[in-house]
Design a protein that fits this description.
The chain is mainly alpha-helical and 103 residues long. It contains two helices and no strands. This is RNA polymerase subunit sigma.
C-alpha cells in the first residue's frame, strides 16, 4: 500500500495525535490503578485500626459496668446470679470432692 504526498500530509499529523492520545490513555490507566491501590491500602489500614479500637472500647465498657453497677440493687442481684452460674459451670465432677473408696 503506497501513499501519495497529499495523503502523507494528512496521515503523519494524525499519527502523532493518535500516539499522544494513546500515551495519555495509558497514563490515565496507570493513574487509576495507582489511586485504586492507595484507596485499598487506606481501607485496609482503617479496618485494622477499627478492630483494635473496638477491642479497647469493649474493655473500657466492661470496667465501667463493674464500677458503675455497685450502687444498683437489681444489678447487684444480677451479678450474684451470674457469679453463681459461673461457679457451677466451673465445678468439676470429681476433682476437689471427697470420694470414699473404703468399701
Amino acid at each position: 500500500m503506497s501513499l501519495k504526498g497529499v495523503e502523507l500530509q494528512i496521515a503523519i499529523p494524525k499519527t502523532v495525535d493518535a500516539g499522544k492520545l494513546a500515551e495519555q490513555h495509558q497514563q490515565h490507566v496507570v493513574q487509576q490503578q495507582y489511586y485504586a491501590n492507595e484507596a485499598l491500602k487506606k481501607e485496609t489500614e482503617k479496618k485494622q485500626l477499627t478492630v483494635n479500637d473496638t477491642e479497647k472500647i469493649s474493655i473500657v465498657s466492661e470496667e465501667k459496668d463493674r464500677k458503675g453497677n455497685k450502687g444498683g440493687n437489681s444489678n447487684h442481684h444480677h451479678q450474684k446470679k451470674r457469679k453463681r452460674k459461673e461457679a457451677q459451670e466451673l465445678k468439676h465432677p470429681y476433682k476437689g470432692n471427697f470420694i470414699d473408696y473404703s468399701g
